[in-house]
Design brief:
By secondary structure, the chain is mainly α. The chain is built from 14 helices and 3 strands. α2 crosses α8.
Length: about 270
């Protein structure tokens, strides 16, 4: 059945379907020839590479912080909008680095740098960032980009098993230079929107990502070079989150849904 589906896709392409044409109802940006099992496998492979590369990815093994981010993640994935909570592992890993960034690999493997944890000021903002990374996994942005980047024919060879070595090669290339992190602006808009949705019925202030955007705007751009290269920022993202706050008539945040005091205490545990 899976092979038949791809056969019809090839026929459609050969007959001249313009995949980039939204007018025709087909958008190549939404085509994903990988299954969710493929997402998980690719994420596992990348996770193994990261864990076996402590020089570039020094893992921060702190039980208090690990429990803390796991609890936030568990709160986020309670959302009714999370589709793959029983499919993706949503494994949280902390990296001990001054880098201000976070990223997700396919299948729900999420990595957060301690530099980011120091940079932000409340738990709700961290929840919004984690929700944003979960959205990248849920919306399957990485494997959609891979389908588009490597082309339909090659991706079909991989998913149909006729070129299995290529998957390993691509996985290695993705990790080199963190190539899989470079999200498009459209991916970022969608991840912001879903982050807000995930937090709407949670204990957190759903618009907390605005505090992160404000800090980015006030910080040195050199400090945020990697963050901005992998998560492009523009006024549209800021305007969109403010519109969501207004449209949903969110009340002003308080410590009861920002958890600023609790977060300040946790920051004291972070390495210098």
């Amino acid at each position: 059945m899976k092979n038949l589906k791809y056969f019809f896709l090839i026929i459609a392409i050969s007959l001249g379907v313009t995949l980039s044409s939204c007018e025709d109802g087909v958008n190549i940006n939404n085509i994903n020839l990988f299954s969710t099992d493929d997402d998980v496998k690719l994420g596992q492979d990348l996770d193994n590479q990261i864990l076996n590369n402590p020089q570039e990815y020094p893992i921060y093994n702190n039980a208090d912080w690990q429990n803390y981010v796991n609890n936030i993640k568990n709160e986020v994935i309670k959302s009714q909008y999370i589709e793959y909570k029983d499919k993706f592992p949503y494994k949280m890993t902390l990296i001990n680095s001054k880098t201000v960034n976070a990223f997700a690999t396919p299948g729900g493997y999420i990595y957060i740098y301690t530099g980011l944890l120091k940079f932000i000021d409340n738990e709700a903002t961290l929840a919004a960032i984690i929700a944003h990374e979960i959205a990248h996994a849920e919306r399957r942005h990485a494997t959609k980009r891979m389908t588009k980047q490597y082309g339909i024919s090659l991706m079909l060879e991989i998913v149909l098993g006729t070129n299995p070595d290529k998957m390993t090669e691509i996985g290695t290339n993705l990790l080199t230079g963190l190539g899989f992190l470079f999200n498009s602006r459209e991916d970022e808009y969608e991840a912001d929107e879903y982050s807000f949705k995930y937090l709407m019925n949670s204990k957190y202030y759903a618009g907390a990502s605005k505090f992160f955007f404000e800090k980015i705007g006030n910080a040195s751009q050199s400090t945020l070079e990697e963050l901005l290269s992998t998560h492009p920022m523009d006024q549209k993202r800021i305007d969109a989150i403010n519109k969501l706050i207004t449209d949903n008539k969110l009340a002003s945040p308080t410590d009861a849904n920002l958890f600023t005091t609790k977060y300040s205490q946790m920051k004291q545990l972070l390495p210098n």
